[in-house]
């Protein structure tokens, strides 16, 4: 079905890529549908930028904190032993003070802290600080580079189209009362809709937006379809949509 | 989200796992990290199957000459260069170090000039096989040196991830070429003495593998340009270019441009190799149990952020 294009938003793209258990019912739904109907798989440019930012921000923040931790540790001791756990706690307590509770930064810092503590508990009684830090950094890079690689491969299988947003369409969506909350809190979501509309117009393909975001897209699907002619779907309903088309 | 470029970096702190193994302070030494990068470039260019198409070849350069030509091309793109930088001197030093590395590590054979003959595909495959083995053996050591570089720099972890991915993809690509070249050897040999038919076998090979080869060469060139630019920005004299000095980046337009090009080219290569891999080598540092679960946790944070 080369006259159809299915666009994904960040929620479903990342959930599928990293097999997020919250969305396990959706795993493979789009792939199965694609095998049957061979539509074009797309990422709007704003979605592509969003997912790139999310992945690199998490990786770079982990890198930043682990480097800071290493420098901190080196100023405190040349040899690590069981008292190292006190140093780890001291460092990460100060990191937590810089960020709000429950923030992404705190979650990442907590993951790093736990990994480092486990590493400390697993090592011999006394270890050279330099070796401890380097072992830790090598592990972090192994994990994050694999994650990056998976992301690059998945992203490479999508078309990232370029789109010139129609300002009239943008205004129309921003003025719509049921989309006011989205327009205010998540303007990128409005931009994504405009980009898909522009691609539909330029390519003359029928475009769909597949998402698991109920608040901004799925609950407003009828309104969005009425305003700009783009259907928003849960991945589980995609095949049915093509069957009835 | 905390921005990496706001980080205040004090005087770089050195990490030395094993002082003698990881520290290079003299032009007489050659960083294994540099070797892995530079050697890949020169072998790939030198062994482009297309070189065999004009039969018989009028001239086959030595490996180090070919490498220098390509390094020169990459460095020529970098502007501005400091006044103390002299291209010929740099390339002369590079060649010396390259030869010493090969001689010290029993790879002297790679310095022998190649003869074009009816076992050309297998000869090239043998070189690539040796290189893949070197990269496989060196991976753990290379990785530790790379992370030492990260620790002493102000560069983002994302960039070092790209270096790691690039290392793996280069090895996978060369293994892919090695295996492909071995499959055409019987047909090539069968047509020995018949230049037209030998040429056709090589031509078909080049056409079939052009996309991966071009992606690999573009990645190598752009990575070399980025690495060299960073080294040049942190060097004060020629000898510094052969040391593993801490890299402090100004995050200026040039850095963003070089990194962008490298990332774009590497992404294309990674996607291509995901479709062409043979899975014979793994290239992974030994994993510590303590970090099990970290990858899953990071993926969850990305999805939920």
Give your account of this protein's structure.
The complex is a heterodimer of chains A (245) and B (305). Chain A has helices spanning 10-17, 29-37, 45-76, 84-97, 104-122, 129-156, 167-175, 180-185, 187-203, 221-228, 238-244, and strands at residues 4-8, 40-43, 79-80, 127-128, 159-160, 206-210, 231-233. Chain A has 245 residues and is of the alpha/beta class. In chain A, the strands form 2 sheets. A 5-stranded parallel β-sheet of chain A has the order 5-2-1-6-7. In chain A, strands 3-4 form a two-stranded antiparallel sheet. In chain A, helix 3 crosses helix 5 (104-122), helix 4 (84-97) packs antiparallel against helix 5 (104-122) and helix 7 (167-175) crosses helix 9. The N and C termini of chain A lie close together (11 Å). Chain B has 9 helices and no strands. Chain B has helices spanning 19-22, 32-46, 63-76, 87-104, 120-152, 157-190, 195-233, 253-276, 294-304. In chain B, helix 2 packs across helix 3 and helix 2 runs antiparallel to helix 7. The longest helix of chain B has 39 residues, at 195-233. Chain B is globular and about 60 Å long. The N and C termini of chain B lie close together (10 Å). At the A-B interface, helix 3, helix 5 and helix 6 of A face helix 5, helix 6, helix 8 and helix 9 of B.
What is shown here, in short?
The complex is a heterodimer of chains A (245) and B (305). Chain A has 245 residues and is α/β, with parallel strands linked by helices.
């Amino acid at each position: 079905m080369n006259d159809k294009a299915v666009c994904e938003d960040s929620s479903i793209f990342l959930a599928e890529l990293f097999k997020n258990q919250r969305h396990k019912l959706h795993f493979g739904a789009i792939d199965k549908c694609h095998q049957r109907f061979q539509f074009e798989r797309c990422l709007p440019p704003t979605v592509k930028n969003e997912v790139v930012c999310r992945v690199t921000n998490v990786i770079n923040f982990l890198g930043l904190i682990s480097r800071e931790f290493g420098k901190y540790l080196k100023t405190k001791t040349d040899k690590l032993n069981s008292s190292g756990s006190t140093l780890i706690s001291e460092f990460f307590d100060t990191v937590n003070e810089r960020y709000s509770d429950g923030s992404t930064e705190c979650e990442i810092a907590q993951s790093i802290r736990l990994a480092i503590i486990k590493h400390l508990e697993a090592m011999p009684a006394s270890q050279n600080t330099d070796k401890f830090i380097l072992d830790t950094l090598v592990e972090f890079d192994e994990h994050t580079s694999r994650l990056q690689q998976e992301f690059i491969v998945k992203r490479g299988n999508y078309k990232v189209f370029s789109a010139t947003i129609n300002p009239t369409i943008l205004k129309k969506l921003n003025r719509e009362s049921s989309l006011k909350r989205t327009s205010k809190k998540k303007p990128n979501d409005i931009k994504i809709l405009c980009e898909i509309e522009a691609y539909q117009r330029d390519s003359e393909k029928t475009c769909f937006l597949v998402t698991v975001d109920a608040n901004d897209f799925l609950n407003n699907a009828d309104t969005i379809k009425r305003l700009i002619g783009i259907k928003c779907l849960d991945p589980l309903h995609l095949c049915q949509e093509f069957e009835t088309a | 989200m905390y921005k990496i470029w706001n980080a205040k970096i004090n005087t770089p702190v050195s990490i030395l796992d094993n002082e003698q193994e990881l520290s290079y302070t003299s032009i007489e030494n050659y960083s294994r990290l540099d070797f892995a990068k530079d050697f890949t470039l020169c072998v790939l260019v030198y062994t482009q199957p297309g070189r065999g198409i004009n039969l018989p070849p009028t001239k086959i350069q030595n490996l180090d000459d070919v490498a220098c030509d390509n390094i020169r091309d990459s460095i020529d793109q970098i502007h501005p260069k400091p006044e103390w930088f002299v291209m010929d001197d740099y390339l002369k030093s590079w060649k010396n170090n390259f030869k010493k590395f090969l001689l010290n590590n029993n790879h002297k054979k790679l310095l022998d000039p190649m003869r074009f003959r009816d076992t050309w595909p297998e000869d090239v495959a043998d070189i690539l096989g040796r290189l893949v083995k070197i990269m496989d053996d060196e991976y753990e050591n290379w990785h530790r040196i790379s992370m030492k570089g990260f620790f002493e720099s102000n560069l983002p972890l994302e960039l070092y991830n790209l270096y790691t991915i690039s290392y793996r993809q280069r090895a996978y690509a060369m293994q892919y070429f090695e295996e492909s070249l071995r499959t055409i050897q019987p047909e090539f040999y069968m047509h020995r003495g018949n230049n037209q038919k030998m040429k056709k076998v090589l031509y078909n090979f080049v056409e079939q593998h052009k996309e991966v080869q071009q992606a690999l060469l573009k990645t190598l060139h752009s990575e070399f340009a980025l690495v060299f630019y960073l080294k040049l920005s942190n060097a004060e004299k020629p000898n510094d270019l052969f040391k593993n000095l801490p890299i402090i980046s100004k995050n200026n337009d040039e850095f963003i441009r070089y990194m962008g090009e490298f990332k774009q080219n590497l992404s294309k290569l990674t996607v291509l190799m995901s479709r062409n891999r043979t899975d014979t080598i793994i290239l992974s540092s030994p994993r510590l149990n303590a970090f099990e679960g970290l990858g899953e946790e990071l993926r969850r944070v990305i999805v939920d952020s």
